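WARN no homologs supplied; continuing
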Amino acid sequence: MHSVQNLISKLSASFDDLSHNERRIAQEILDDPAGITTMTSQNLAQQCGVSQSSIIKFCKKIGLSGFPALKITLSAEIARTQSAEQIHGDIFSNDPLSAVAQKMYNSKVSALSETLKLNSTDDFSIAVEKLTAAKRIIILGVGGSALVSSDFASKLTKLGKAVISGSDAHVHLANLARFGPEDLLVLISYSGKSKELLVAAEYAHQHNIPILRLTGPNAIDNTNSNEFTLRCVASENLVRSSSIATRTAQLAITDLLFILFAQKEADMPAKIQDSQNVVNRLR
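OK structure emitted
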């Protein structure tokens, strides 16, 4: 029998491969597994706007004999997890190591796959052009995104870019006051709602400073013509002890931008080696 944790992981990982109607059903299960146990197949069909036969077909597609089997599977796992602490996402305190490893792996793979699908090759080309054209760059991220911004800044510095990064948003805002249209502000935030980033973006808009934003799929779009957005996806919709899948998705994008940027310049390998040679003097 499937456990709901395996079912949720499976549905999350394969969500984009499902048909439109199957996605509706899967989303209902992901959003409220306990609620499904109180429904009939007809109730769920009405909730999802699909036929009752679609519910049965979906259950069989995911390896269950029918809707009653789905309810039993969900009920059994909910009862089990009531005595277990939810650590992160669908990982519980009494999960065996093998299950934790598989769930973590599935979460990361899903984040990478969904993020790649969300951004086109043209999107990445535009982002690299903005990085290339910038005289100076400020990379600002807070919380878990600060780790990503620091890593990205380190990589770009090796390629000869003048990059300002760090964890002190006040320093960033002070430096931003000396930026202009020939520079670039990079904002990294999954929610897009961090106050520090909102203040920085507002100032950049007022002074025609280009913005490259890396954010989540549900962040509000900005219609400012001087701003460009890349998006990442992370299915951490339950308990989050840390933004693990989010950072995985963010780092995938910044790493790709780094490689694409390096690919554009013929002397980039030499620049990287020069920077490494200087660091090696500390050994």
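Confidence is low (pLDDT under 50) at residues 237-241.
OK
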